[in-house]
Design goal:
This protein is an alpha/beta fold. The chain contains 5 helices and 6 strands; from the N terminus they run βαβαβαβββαα.
Length: 199
């Protein structure tokens, strides 16, 4: 049975400030006190899962256990069919330990050399975990195409090379409110709100 979140404090289980701010903005209407894992000094668990769902659950459960507070984690990435689904769950790793997404985007462009299929999708899975081990997961997707060179300085990660279907701007060029309305994370968040976050 689906469990509803009824608390007033939630840990965002990420050390990525861009992701933390994006999730906090989506949670703003719910008057929930949001705190990031980095602010609490929580360790980053090793992402050993083989799916977005598994990694999101792993991060959410780790944060909920250590903080004794419900925790929301996101695992997300760029899926490129012409690259066999890569970088997928390894999207952050392609940026290296210094989180250099300019290098990651260049690597995607290099791997796509000679390929005409530029379709891509962003996937986000939100996992909401309680300290007793209960977990709810919600998957969102945004479909589009890749463009090079990167355009725009907004957003984070691979946003500057992703143009969502039906739009002319990359996520990196869009105002935050426009991106939040159509992003993969927003899609997952709508499902979260409908499933576990109804107030």
């Amino acid at each position: 049975m689906t469990r509803k979140f009824t608390g007033d404090r939630l840990v965002i289980a990420t050390h990525n400030p861009g992701k933390r701010d994006e999730i906090a903005a989506l949670l703003a209407p719910f008057a929930v006190d949001v705190v990031g894992a980095a602010e609490l000094g929580l360790p980053e668990p090793e992402e050993t899962g083989t799916t977005f769902e598994a990694n999101a659950a792993l991060k959410a459960l780790a944060a909920a256990n250590v903080s004794a507070t419900p925790a929301l984690a996101d695992d997300s990435g760029l899926v490129v069919p012409a690259l066999g689904g890569a970088p997928g769950i390894y999207s952050a790793r392609w940026a290296g330990p210094d989180h250099n997404f300019a290098r990651a985007m260049a690597l995607v462009e290099e791997r796509l050399a000679g390929k005409t299929d530029r379709r891509a999708m962003f996937v986000a899975v939100l996992a909401l975990a309680w300290p007793d081990g209960h977990i709810e997961s919600f998957r969102g997707e945004a479909h589009g195409t890749l463009v090079f060179p990167p355009r725009g300085t907004r957003g984070f990660g691979y946003d500057p090379v992703f143009v969502p279907n039906g739009r002319g701007l990359t996520f990196g060029e869009m105002a935050p409110a426009e991106k939040h309305a159509i992003s993969h994370r927003a899609d997952a968040f709508r499902k979260l709100v409908a499933g576990s976050f109804a107030r």
